[in-house]
Task: inverse folding
């Protein structure tokens, strides 16, 4: 199946000489949720802005729905809904009017039932007649999503959509995103909340210094790059790791009360039962065992650190 978005050799250099994007290649599949992660200034917003036709690329090509965004701007832009980072709305319009107006901008006929559903889904229905200036920051963030959905796009870009939104509302918005995906909408999400990407995404993309470091299915990324850690809480502190256990690459905590074994999650050669037996044979006793595995945040931090 043809990707709904195809990015080929995309670069963006500004007059100052700053290169925001460097030869980016990316395919986004129809119906997926792709989380795009990267530190501030990595190029996330620039990439989104080029795909949405807001910023002009220095070189490269972008296809949306199989059509070039330059030669078929109206057709491609009508497929896209964008929730930007900035809270830019007409302060003295009502919620209902601004969402309805956004739909009309794309030449879509009035559909009060759809607008009502969107506002209800975003917990904005009771504010439909309120002027935007009276809304809280979280409500304005939801309003941006309502405006982006008003023309029934096939693709939805969410650029830091839950910034400044409380935890409960964030989870409500996650649920809405899942519903949109189930209805066939392709979603591209940028976020600084790593747990948001881990919760929502089918695939993870990491961008740093204008370059795509990797794009990988979330579960495969966790399998390939995740680390497992086995921590043994000893009944008596040690001064050093016993010589007979050096083959297990154990690390001793500063106070000597914990032995830690860190290994690749995909390494089937790690013999945990053998390690426990070796500890017992060495006369060590432990009161507790704890196992952990790297989170997506750990993986992201390590990837970006390796690129610096």
Result:
């Amino acid at each position: 199946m043809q990707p709904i978005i195809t990015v080929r050799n995309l670069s963006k250099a500004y007059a100052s000489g700053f290169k925001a994007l460097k030869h980016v290649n990316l395919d986004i599949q129809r119906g997926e949720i792709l989380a795009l992660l990267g530190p501030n200034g990595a190029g996330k917003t620039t990439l989104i802005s080029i795909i949405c036709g807001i910023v002009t690329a220095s070189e490269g090509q972008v296809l949306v729905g199989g059509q070039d965004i330059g030669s078929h701007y109206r057709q491609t832009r009508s497929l896209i809904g964008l929730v930007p980072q900035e809270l830019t709305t007409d302060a003295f319009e009502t919620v209902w009017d601004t969402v309805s107006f956004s739909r009309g901008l794309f030449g879509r006929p009035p559909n009060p039932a759809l607008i009502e559903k969107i506002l209800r889904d975003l917990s904005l229905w009771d504010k439909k007649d309120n002027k935007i200036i009276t809304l809280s920051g979280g409500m304005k963030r939801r309003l941006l999503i309502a405006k982006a959905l008003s023309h029934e796009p096939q693709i939805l870009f969410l650029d830091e959509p839950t910034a400044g939104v409380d935890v409960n509302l964030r989870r409500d918005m996650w649920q809405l995103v899942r519903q949109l995906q189930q209805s066939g909408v392709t979603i591209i999400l940028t976020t600084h909340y790593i747990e948001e990407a881990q919760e929502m995404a089918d695939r993870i993309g990491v961008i740093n210094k204008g370059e795509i470091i990797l794009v990988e299915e979330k579960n495969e990324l966790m399998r390939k790059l995740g680390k497992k850690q086995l921590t043994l809480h000893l009944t008596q502190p040690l001064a050093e790791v016993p010589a007979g256990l050096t083959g297990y690459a154990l690390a001793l905590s500063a106070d000597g009360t914990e032995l830690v074994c860190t290994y690749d999650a995909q390494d089937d050669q790690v013999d945990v039962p053998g390690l426990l037996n070796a500890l017992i044979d060495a006369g060590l006793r432990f009161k507790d065992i704890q196992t952990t595995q790297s989170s997506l945040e750990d993986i992201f931090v390590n990837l970006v650190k390796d690129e610096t």
Summary: DSSP finds ten helices and 14 strands in the chain. The first strand starts at residue 5 and ends at 13. The longest helix spans residues 167-182.
